[in-house]
Write a structure and sequence with these properties.
The chain is α/β, with parallel strands linked by helices and 232 residues long. The strands form two sheets. It has a six-stranded mixed sheet. A four-stranded antiparallel sheet has the order 2-1-4-5, covered by helices on one side. It contains six helices and ten strands; from the N terminus they run E-E-E-H-E-E-E-H-H-H-E-H-E-H-E-E. The protein has helices spanning 54-61, 110-122, 127-137, 153-165, 183-200, 211-214, and strands at 12-21, 28-38, 43-47, 69-74, 77-78, 95-98, 171-175, 203-208, 219-224, 227-230. Helix 2 (110-122) crosses helix 3 (127-137), helix 2 packs parallel to helix 4 and helix 4 packs parallel to helix 5.
């Protein structure tokens, strides 16, 4: 297990983060005081059962959910201070997100899904080149004009990875990226993510409930009932 990281080394960090949905007797404590530091280019497995808080923690780190308590820093400053206009389609500038089940825009082609994300994230001037190059990078150069309904599960997830890469991420957050895939396809998707991290050097967090998936990564955090049981 990696030793506790210094804040000076961390690209992102959260401190005593709590997230509560609802009020009173109906309140759900999705996170209950989570602290985490992420260093550039490292890989982390976020392990836990359904309902443990994995997705909520990724949403907090990606700027999609404001914590009820605690703080989140991105590149040395509070994440909430990042201009929302610079946050792009799924998070703050420099953070890419691969949603569970791909979550592509259903009436957009693969090319349009990626180019739209690039436009929102960076105002990319040459969207056609960027989207085409990224889809070719993930092996889908022949599927530019295909709608999500015309893609296999693995192909849709590769489009989602290309869309996340359009943000030129320094941190890539993957929420159960193989959860809707058969084992062989899931392995290929994980191999692609790992190869892209090796090539591009971004930090990586993969949320999973599978121990064999978590074994791929340098550091493992286990969540249960919104608490980190092991890690830092």
């Amino acid at each position: 297990m990696t030793a506790r990281l210094s804040l000076l080394e961390a690209i992102a960090a959260c401190r005593d983060v709590a997230v509560v949905y609802g009020e009173g007797d109906a309140a759900v404590h999705a996170l209950a005081g989570v602290s985490l530091e992420i260093r550039p280019a490292e890989s982390i497995a976020l392990l836990g059962r359904s309902g443990s808080g994995k997705t909520t923690l990724l949403h907090v780190l990606g700027g999609l959910v404001e914590p009820t308590a605690g703080s989140v820093d991105w590149q040395g400053r509070p994440l909430r201070s990042v201009d929302r206009a610079a946050r792009g389609a799924v998070g703050s500038s420099g953070i890419g997100y691969v949603f569970q089940g791909a979550n592509l825009l259903p009436h957009f082609t693969a090319f349009e899904n990626v180019s739209f994300a690039a436009m929102l994230a960076r105002g990319e001037s040459d969207l056609a080149y960027t989207a085409t190059a990224l889809l070719e990078l993930v092996g889908l150069g022949a599927k530019l004009d295909h709608l999500p309904s015309e893609l296999s599960g693995g192909e849709a997830q590769r489009v989602a990875i290309a869309r996340a890469l359009a943000q030129q991420p320094q941190l890539l957050l993957c929420d159960e990226p193989t959860g809707h895939l058969d084992s062989d396809t899931g392995e290929r998707v994980l191999d692609l993510i790992d190869a892209l991290q090796e090539e591009r050097g971004f930090a990586l967090i993969v949320a999973t409930h599978a121990v064999d998936v978590s074994a791929r990564y340098e550091r493992e955090l286990e969540l249960e009932d919104g608490l980190v049981l092991d890690g830092l």
